[in-house]
Amino acid sequence: MTDQIEAVAAVGDEVDELIAVTRRFAATMSGAPRCAGAEDWWDGLCEIGLERCLLPDELGGIGLPPATLPALIEELAAGDGGAALAALLSNVALWGLAGAGATGTQGDAHCVLVPAPEVSVDASGLVHGAVPTAYDATRGSRLVVCAGIAGEGGLWTLEPGSPRLRAEPVRDQLGLDGAPAAALALDGVAAQRLGDGTEATTLLHAGVAAIARGIARRAERMALAYAERRYQGGGLIIGHGAVRDMLARMAERRLACAGAGPGLAAAIAARIAATDAAVATTTDAVQVFGGMGYMVETGVERLMRDAKACQLYPTPNWLLRDRLLELGR
Amino acid sequence: MAIMIEPGSLEARAPRLHGHPLLRGRGLAALRRDVAVVRRFAVEEIRPQALALDRRMAADPGAFPWDLVTAGGRIGLLGLCLPRVSGGEADRFCLRTSLAIEEVAAACGGMATVFGAHALGITPLLISGAGHWDGVMRDLALSAATGERPLVMACAITEPAAGTDVEHHEHVRTAKLVSRAERVHGGYRLSGVKHFISNGSAADWVTVILAEDPKRPYETMRAFLVDAHSPGFAVTKIEHKMGQRASPAAELTFTDVFVPDERVIGRPGDGIAATAAVLAGSRPVVGAIGTGIARGAYERLLQWLQTDPAGGRLLAHQQVQLALARMEELVHGARQAYLDAATEFDMVSMGRIFGLPAVQALARLPRRVRANRLGRRQMRADSSARLLMALVDRYVGDEELTRSLGLSSLAKAQGADVAMEVTGLALEIAGDGCGDLRPELQKCWRDAKLCQIYEGTNQLNRLEVCGALVAREPLGVLGAAA
Q1: Would an 8 Å CB–CB cutoff place B245 in contact with chain A?
Q2: What ipTM was estimated for this complex?
Q3: Segment A149-171, tens digit of pLDDT
Q4: Which of B432, B447, B464 to mutate against chain A (most A CBs within 10 Å)?
Q5: Quick check: A187 and A252 in contact, CB under 8 A?
Q6: Which residues of B159-176 are buried (b: 16+ CB within 10 A; e: fewer)?
């Protein structure tokens, strides 16, 4: 039993019920045109409390332990990877703020975590650098920056509305469009330190792994359903070895990437494995659909792009592997 | 670490071209010159527009890149597989076409498919005999040379319920075909739907593969040359695609479209053999598209690593150096695979026919002879197709066609997989901080995926490889005609 499942079991029926609610909510998102009516799904998500479920009751949250978050995020990602990322970034940002006793977590404040491997913070607490892809940042009223590949630069909350922060929408977003991306330029933005960024990074990578698992689950489900109704080669394609092999590998990857253990190293390892698996599964899902899979209307190619975006965010896997080695030494 | 961005000479990339039997005399120099012309066009004209074109076509999939197609026509990209008799330069065309298309694909995968789909539309005419080497094929060559809007071809094979099936000589027996050709006085009437047809919305002429009896496709499939302005022909849908957007994919609906006898291609029952022959010649080109897309991503990455400070820092990592070596290795291997397949097609398989003295003599007949009434009757589809298929039976044979199709399927599957692996790897190496390179690499990666799907899925192609090269089972498709 993984750490996450244990954590979910610990808080009992409440989490089970929330997972069921999230699953039903995610099902309503499946197949919806990306970005269309984005605020509608955000409102729905807030109504359930998914954007702030780690906060205690008194701050308007549900008080779930952090280890339960990936299970909820995975369910959401099975509906829409971008929406799941938006929820993840909101939860980690709020959790970081609340943990440091910072204000700005109440009410309908939309807080967003910005992982920023390349930014630096000077001795005066001013943040410098660039973030090429900051998902959901333009929708956030408060940004929380996690500096460094593994959060070694600390967790910082940026001064809201700083003129030294410029944001440009990313024009050719690869995927996860439910969380529109912006390129941020930080030219000495005043920031308040919230603490060490390790826990936020751990939650982020465990969450990205969960998003990848959710995307892959949806791709697998769609591919299987299509294979059970598509006729080629004298029968349904589910009967052809070539297709069966792709579907079997999807199941194999899903079962091999069931969840992460505790700690940053385990979260990074889970994220690397899950995102690589999601890219493979979604690419195969498009292949099972054949020409139909390449067409936007089918919705499978979107999963392939979402999975690839996860693999690259916020740091590509080959660089994370290097960090994983250092953590284990 | 200094790296070379230029891909090097043709022979440096493909040493096997030294002493290539098709390139004796001045052949290699001519090929080098042709490929250099296409490369210059690709680098100077296509690549700077590729991303903007991709964005424009995403917003308006019904558009067509006429400016680039017209300019490409002027340097011969619309005549890659036209024989000399039709005003082209390609008596043995697969090698030349593949090398040229790799250059285009390195700039834009979608544009490579535009020119490739045009060639795919011509190939059935070409291999069905001299009866079609005048007329439409000559018009195509002339229109490309004028510099005005050229005539464009498409090839329509796939149906909504029959994709992979119609690309395989055995699967076609159980294909759920709906479209059909009905014999009427003076020709045929075509009805039904074809979909995912590259160039379908822009083509002036469409080569349509149809069965006279949809329940017996193996026995009754053949090709028809359809004027896209014919009554009953309609473009009923244009797809929104993940990538390769420069090449629109259309659904074509045929409602009793009349095709006169002189535009029927080949003999009844030749359809399966002709399809196998066409795929033997077209799949190396798809392998070249995959190779080109991979090379395009690789070259873009190299340029960034060389010129950007952030890229320069990455280059110090051995992991990056190993990834670059892997990309070089993959692109090189994929190129050798399609060169082998193209050489086999040109030297041993169908291409060989075009070098035979009898066919060369036919091609040398003065136009006035071919164009007079008697000449036209002699050159009509049935008689010239009979001659060509007799030559195929004698000089090519089922074993050679089988091997050619096997090698071409291998090149296609390998090129497509290499395109996916190299483009994915390039994205990972460059990461998030590569600025304007990122959308270009994303486009290469989106473009690459289609290579694994069209011209038969990679899975089908590998089954073809297993049958042809592992089990060495002859296709048994030659001599099937009535």
Answers
A1: no
A2: 0.94
A3: 888 899 999 988 899 999 999 99
A4: B432
A5: no
A6: bbebbbbbbbbbbbeebe
